[in-house]
Structure formats: C-alpha cells, structure tokens
Specification:
Blueprint: H1 5-12, H2 16-25, E1 32-33, E2 39-40, H3 43-57, H4 62-68, H5 74-105, H6 124-136, H7 139-150, H8 154-161, H9 169-189, H10 204-218, H11 221-244
Antiparallel strand pairs: 1-2
Length: 254
C-alpha cells in the first residue's frame, strides 16, 4: 500500500519538511503521483529514508551521503567523520570540565581555563588581562602566572584594586613595598617573568604591544605607579638575594 508524504515521514521518524529537503538535495527519488496529484511512496522510498536517517545519526553530512553509496571511498569518509566526532567529543569534554570548575569555584563564567581557583583573588582588570594571557602564553607559562596569584597577599591586592587614580604618593610607595617581596620571589621561581616576551606563543611584536596597551588601559595611573615601583624594588631584592645567597622574604598569602 503506497504511503503519503506524512505517512512516510512518520515511518522514518522524521518530518514532512525533511522528506521534502531530501528530495531537494537529490537524496530521495521523487515518487509517482496519484490521479489526484498526491505522492505515492513505496517500500524503496522508505528503505532510502531509513538509510539516510542512519547515516545522519552517524554524523555523516547530508552533502556526503550521496558520495558514500557504493563507492570504495566509503570507509575513508567514515574514518574522517569519526576523527571529526572525536575532536567534537574532546571539545565537549573540555567544555564540561570548564563548567564543572567554574561551578565548583563559583567563578565568573568567562574566566579563562585554569584560573577558576584564583578568580576570587583577581580584580576585574586582572581577569581581563588573564584572557589575553590565555591567548598569548603556553600552558606552562599560564601555570606559573596562576601560581603567582595564589601566592599573592589577597588583602594588599584588594587594596590595589580599589586604589583611586589620584592616590597619594605615600600610599603608592607603601603598596609597592608590600608587594615587592612576593614579586621578587616570583622572579626567582619563574625567571622568564623578567622577560615575558620570551614565552609568547604568538607573534611577539604585535603581542608585546597588545600587552602593554592593555595594562595601560585597564589599570589607573596610581595602580600603574605601584606596579612600576614594586617591579623596580623587586629587581633590587633579587639582585641582593642572589649576591648573598638568601632566600626571598616570606610573604603570607591569605
């Protein structure tokens, strides 16, 4: 008994529009029509529909289904599709792991991968910079950067984050002195921080400029002054410690 388009769609577990789309792509032959103009689908049409649906379920693009039928390249095409599915599964697994970390740490949804556990210690500007770091540095460098955040003094960092653009020189100097020891320790533990460009994973010229311009745009003048003074003091401490063989000053991290 012939079937209508609606009946064929129901038997194949799809929709009338999908059947029509397969006709349009040339994947499904047009059936004969009854005297009243209605289509009459046969068993051959149903088998074709079921075959197409099976290939779609396997992830075969509609544009490739016609190429698979009875050709020696079928296995190669399936290997390529399987490889793409494997890549998709890997992307989804990374996404799930990222979501799990964000939920576990109650971190902002857009925090870069690997920074979820320290997101609460980072200012909005720090988080913005982390996005750029994640783009331009390799995984090992990012792990080092995360370590520097973990070892920082959260209270001092919070004070710097809330520092007014016109903060007085005494406050700037005090904050610079407070963070200089931890910066010195970081320079000793991760020497590449003294030459950040050495670890860039992408074009150095444009990336170096992007890093400099982003820092200037995201932090206010007083905060930048703290960073400059602290960096200079940290390098002094490193030179002193290397000359004397002493370990860097201990800094309690909250």
């Amino acid at each position: 008994m012939p079937w209508s388009t609606r009946e064929l769609a129901e038997l194949a577990g799809t929709t009338v529009n999908t059947v029509r789309h397969y006709h349009h792509l040339g994947l499904l032959d047009e059936p004969v029509r009854r005297h009243n103009g209605y289509k009459q689908y046969e068993v051959s049409h149903l088998m074709a529909m079921l075959r197409i649906r099976r290939l779609v379920d396997l992830g075969v693009p509609l544009s490739q289904i016609g190429e698979l039928e009875g050709t020696p390249s079928e296995n190669q095409a399936l290997h390529e599709i399987d490889a793409e599915l494997a890549r998709s599964i890997e992307r989804l697994q990374r996404a799930r792991a990222g979501i799990a970390a964000i939920l576990r740490e109650q971190a902002p949804a857009d925090i870069p991968t690997g920074f979820e556990s320290v997101a609460s210690r980072m200012s909005e500007a720090d988080r913005s910079m982390a996005h750029l770091y994640a783009r331009v540095y390799d995984d090992d460098a990012l792990a080092d950067l995360r370590s520097t955040i973990e070892s920082s003094d959260a209270a001092v960092e919070a004070e710097i984050a809330s520092l007014a653009p016109d903060a007085d020189a005494e406050t700037v100097e005090r904050l610079a002195e407070q963070i200089a020891p931890s910066l010195a320790r970081n320079l000793l533990e991760h020497p590449w921080l003294a030459d950040p460009a050495s670890r860039l994973a992408v074009d150095q010229a444009s990336t170096r400029k992007a890093l400099v311009e982003s820092v200037k745009a995201l932090y206010n003048p007083a905060q930048l002054d703290v960073f400059v003074k602290a960096s200079a003091r940290a390098h002094e401490l490193v030179d002193q410690m290397r000359a004397s063989g002493d370990e860097p000053p201990a800094v309690d991290a909250d």
